[in-house]
């Protein structure tokens, strides 16, 4: 079976010359829910951004959804099919209300107003956010913003979810709902988190980013 995402020999260094990734090899298969762990500064968020084309590797190959991805234009399709939920939801939310934020992506994909309305309603229901539909986005709590950021990505109906610290600012009940939701979704996932209880409940595989390389962890 062909991988949804395949990385080969991926190297990345910051502008100051600090090497972060030193030859990453990785494959994401359909149905995988991969926990990506590692110390602070190991490059976990950077790896997600490379997959999504928001950073450019110094060398190596990124294959996504059956094609080599090299240039900016190659990643426009990837960003729809592999939805990245940022660690800071304020980087993701920019429309006045929650419903408008959810509608933005589908509208830009050319969906009709009727289709967008159905997508927004369905996504809000899935995440139990119906009561927030008309709320002003920047007045939400940190946990509410995090769930709305996830909802904006889910509204694009991606094939892969790239989740960067998805449990930050969530209370216990909301974390439990998120666990139930993620384990029932069909999308493949890469999940960055320091919450090991959460990862143990959700992930089917674990890889650790250490000294610039990925190490597959025993089940």
UniProtKB/TrEMBL annotation:
Gene Ontology MF, one: ATPase-coupled transmembrane transporter activity
SUPFAM superfamilies: P-loop containing nucleoside triphosphate hydrolases
Keywords: ATP-binding, Nucleotide-binding, Transport
UniProt cross-references to Pfam families, sorted A to Z: ABC_tran
GO cellular component, one term: ATP-binding cassette (ABC) transporter complex
Start and end residues of each ABC transporter domain: 5-219
InterPro entries, sorted: AAA+_ATPase, ABC_transporter-like_ATP-bd, ABC_transporter-like_CS, ABC_transpr_CbiO/EcfA_su, ECF_ABC_transporter_ATP-bd, P-loop_NTPase
Matches recorded under CDD domains: ABC_cobalt_CbiO_domain1 (cd03225)
Superkingdom, natural source: Bacteria
Protein family membership: Belongs to the ABC transporter superfamily.
PANTHER family, alphabetized: ENERGY-COUPLING FACTOR TRANSPORTER ATP-BINDING PROTEIN ECFA1, HEAVY METAL TRANSPORTER
Protein name (database record): Cobalt ABC transporter ATPase
Naturally occurring in which organism (per UniProt): Kiloniella litopenaei
